[in-house]
Structure formats: C-alpha cells, structure tokens
C-alpha cells in the first residue's frame, strides 16, 4: 500500500532531476451524524493539505477545524505511517491518497449460533459473528499494536501485491495465491487484534474499490470441537453465507478463523472417535471451500493460532503468509508501557508529565546518566523515561506478552497504589494545601515495578 515512484522533473535550466514521490495515506474519519458527501470532504481536505508546506509522518493533523465544512463533519484526520524514513515530506515528495470514512456503530453484529435450536441445549456458544467495517469498536486498534519487526506494513504490502496481480488479470493457473494469512505465536501477542485491525485498515484503504466491507469471525473452537451432527451443518451454513457475501462484488469480506488449531484437533478426534467420516468430511469441506474462495478478488482469510505445530498441514500449506508474532522486544515494551502511561495521564489518573518517546529515551540512555532527584521539568521527564526503559527490560526478561503488559497499570493501582493514592496534595507557599486528583508519576512507577516483580515470583511458581 505504500510505495515510492520516481518522476523525472524538467527544470528551467533543462537539467533533469529525479524526484522520489512517496505514497502517503491520509485517513479522514467523519462524525457519526455527518451528512456531507465524501468527495466534497476529500476535496476540502486536499485543499487544506495543499496549503501547508510539509507534512509530518505520521501525525494527527490539526488546524482543519478552521474550515467550517470540515469542522461540522470531520472528527479526526490522520497522516498514516509510510515506508519513508523521513520525519516529514514536502508536497512535491508526496503522492497523497485521501480516504474518507464513517465507521459504523458497534451494534451491527449478527451471530451464528452453535445451538441446535433445542431449548434444553445449553451449548449455544457463538460459532461466528459478522460486523460491518469500518467499525467504531475497532478504531485505534491498528495504532495501539506495536511490533519490533514491521509486521503491519508487511501485511499491507501483501494485500497490495495481490491487488496488483488481480488487476493485471494474471493467469491463475500460472501464478496463484490462496488469499490466506496465518498468524501464529505465543498467547497474548495481539494476533486476533491484528487481524481485526488489518480488516478495519483494509476497509478504509480499499473504500475507493468497495462500497462496503464486512468482517466474519469464526470461533473455530466452538465450531470444530463438537462433531456430532451439528458442526457439519453449521460449516455448510457458514460457507453458504460467506459465498453470498462474497458474491456482492462491491463488498470486501475478511474472514477471521481464530484458534485454527482446533481444526486439527477435530481431524484427530474424528480419526479416534466413533464417527470418523463425519469429522473428516467437515474438515475437508472447509479446505475445499477455502480453495473456491481463492478465485474471488474481494475476500481475505486470516487465521490465528498459538500452536502452529498442531495445525493441519493441509491448512498451513494454503497460507500465502505464515507470520510468527513474537513476544514484544524491549523497545516495543517501552512503547506499549508509554502508551499506557500517556492514556492514564490524559484521563487524570496520573498527574501530567512529559514521557519521552522511544527515540528520545534511547539518546538519554546513550549519552546521559539519570539526572538524580530533580524538580526541573526536563530532568524529571528524562528520569521517567529511563525508569520506564529499565522496567521494559525487566518485563522483557520475564517474556511478558502484550496482554500482560496492558493490564499492569490496573494491577499496580489495585495492589500497590490504592485508590487513595491517586489523590495528591500540593503545597504552595502562602496558600492552604490543595488536593488534586491524580498520582505522581513516580508513585505509579513504584507500583508498576512492584507489580512486575510480583508477576516474576508468580511465574516462577508455575514452573
Ligand atoms: N504487540 C502488541 N502491542 C500492543 N498491544 C498488544 C500487543 N500484543 C498484545 N497486545 C494487547 O493484548 C491484548 C490481547 O491481544 P490478542 O487477544 O489479540 O492476543 P492473541 O495473540 O490473539 O492471544 P491468544 O493467542 O491468547 O488468542 C489486546 O488487548 C492487545 O491490545
Ligand atoms: Mg487470539
């Protein structure tokens, strides 16, 4: 989705200069009740951007609120990350693509129940759910996921490559792909979230090709763990629905098969069980259905697993991309913890302090020692960054997942800071002491350090 092309630009003195143009995607989110036409907004945003000299990459744009038509319809304008390593680009260096979208509200879910319809059957776990994209419930997810190697860009590039091949009408007998991506790795590394985030991103980026998009999430566990009678019918029903969805050629469909290793469990179970033919038939039917879908341009199958060795090899072989999603590196952990801290500062739980970016803190680490206890704003920010980086190293040693990291602030507050700890008393000369809502960042850091140590002790007990 991100590319650079080189244009030859004639200059007045007749010399030819090569100008590299980077594709930069701008996403414009509209308000729920906005009624303006998308192309009107696109033109207004284009004019607004053209009036500035350079754009920072990536960033959230501001200043557009001064344009009344934009102020009344637009909620947010984001300049997305690009392959370009520069921190900003001039208008001449960019090939701007503006994507205007209005996410649907979270209530557009439709569910496929596993229930047999029998009132006495208490196993009515949902086998699948369908949601309209882009969806408000998935907003911000893409940016919240942080990986050391650029998995997110790799996945977008894969989709881009398949579009290029599809558009060129490449003969499928000679060059073919299956439209299947398999993400695997330890629990809590954001695999399911990444699939949802990618589906959301595609629905925004491909909105000029498809008028609508949908995400169908299949819960493999509830679908494949119970074999007798119902699963077969359910797989059939599901794929009939998927085929119907995909037949609407102006709609894009992402199918997420979560915890796909249950597929293999089903096959093995079927071999050992009393009705082997039923189980096998269903798994084979699923693989056959996937093969049929590969001829459709407007579908993408994403699967996740934390036990890749247990996945049916016939399924693994169909994956165009087999991507390992690792536990976060120290740098990724720093960014995850930083995003947690910035959020609770924004919400008033911790008193305001500037938290250095990863780049800044890496420089502090290289050239500076901690500034010691200091009230100077910059020194304090540097100390916060260095302590957070040390905390990130401790989390890395323990091999903590993204999921474990994101719950640390809650644990720190509950166990070590206490609700009373977030009321802070300020003393200013000549004035009575004042109570302010919010903990000092140092108190929060103490709590986090204790929570990580506690976690380490608990994990040792598990071994
Ligand atoms: N790399 C990451 N960056 C930021 N947040 C992350 C990361 N990995 C996980 N998380 C957070 O952890 C939570 C759990 O993620 P998710 O359920 O997608 O993981 P998973 O890999 O599917 O886990 P499982 O294998 O147990 O199904 C999410 O709320 C997500 O925000
Ligand atoms: Mg998952």
Automatic annotation (TrEMBL):
Query: Domain named AAA+ ATPase: which ranges?
Result: 177-329
From what superkingdom does this record's organism come?
Eukaryota
Q: Return the InterPro entries for the record.
A: AAA+_ATPase, ATPase_AAA_core, ATPase_AAA_CS, P-loop_NTPase, Pch2-like, Pch2_C
* Key word Nucleotide-binding present: yes
Instruction: Write out the entry's keywords from A to Z.
Output: ATP-binding, Meiosis, Nucleotide-binding
Q: Per the UniProt entry, what are the Gene Ontology biological process annotations, in alphabetical order?
A: meiotic recombination checkpoint signaling; reciprocal meiotic recombination
Task: List GO terms (cellular component aspect).
Answer: chromosome; nucleus
The question of whether Iron-sulfur is a record keyword is answered with: no
- Which molecular function term from Gene Ontology is one that the record holds? ATP binding
Q: Matching Pfam families, A to Z?
A: AAA, AAA_lid_TRIP13_C, TRIP13_N
**Mind telling me which SUPFAM superfamilies this protein's record contains?**
P-loop containing nucleoside triphosphate hydrolases (SSF52540)
Regarding protein family, the annotation reads: Belongs to the AAA ATPase family. PCH2 subfamily.
Name it.
Answer: AAA+ ATPase domain-containing protein
